[in-house]
Structure formats: C-alpha cells, structure tokens
Give the backbone structure.
Amino acid sequence: MIAFKKVKKEQFVSDGGLESVFEEISLPKRATAGSAGYDIFAPCDVVVKKGETALIATGIKAEMPQNVVLLILPRSGLGFKYKLRLCNTVGVIDADYFDNPKNEGHILIKLSAEGSDVVIEKGKAFAQGLFVNYLVCDDDVTNTQRVGGFGSTDNK
C-alpha cells in the first residue's frame, strides 16, 4: 500500500505544529494526471526570510512498501523564482520511517531562502513528494530495525 495519512494531533503539536490548524491539514495530491510529484501543502502561513530557515511540521506521514522511498523536493517554481531550498537538498523518507516508535513518521520539512524573503500562504503547495522504487544489492543482508525518527539510522 502507498498512501499519505495524517499524524496524530499530539505528534503534530509536539513537533511544532499549531493545534488550531490540525483539522485543516490537506493530504498531498497530484495537480494533474501527468504529475509525478504529490504537492505538499503548508498547514499555516510561513515566512522564510532571506538567509534564514523555517521548519514546517506538515502533519503528514507516508505509508509504502519496503522497496519504495519517498523523495521530498522543492516545488520547481519556488526554487526557480526565489531560490527557496530544502536544507537537506532532497528529503529521503524510508518505508520504515512510517509509524516508528519515536515520532510516528511525521514528515518535517526545513526550508532556506537564498534569494529573497518568501511567504508561503496556508494551503499553498511548497514542496512535492515523489515515490520511487529502488533496488538493493543481491548480497545485502541488512536486518537492523529502525527504532527512532529523523537521523536515527546514524545512531547505532
């Protein structure tokens, strides 16, 4: 199954989301039948000042099988017009990030503005998610299970 779902309200708020906007969070969707990416919408107004960053608690998580990864990318227009960037360049959401014990799989997106101040209005698409199949090596024997959230695979 591949699906976007909302995180629990408690998770959203603990990650910096505003409780008052939780019920209005929109799940990602494709803009057209030919779109590869699923638009991710701002749950509230966000201002990213030039030279600064903003962390957005999206209120969403993604369920997918083990051979799929969700890549988070900026919307092309925002990057092109305003040099709005993801701080990690491309977000990589692994299948085992969904419903992990530490953070429920909540997707957080950190942006930086390099060109000018950027205002993202509540409900506007600011990033996109692209589901991609991947392969592993024939001799891969990794069986370690994720026990944490963001960056947890570095903490073995």
Observations:
- Residues 25 and 43 are 6 Å apart (CA to CA).
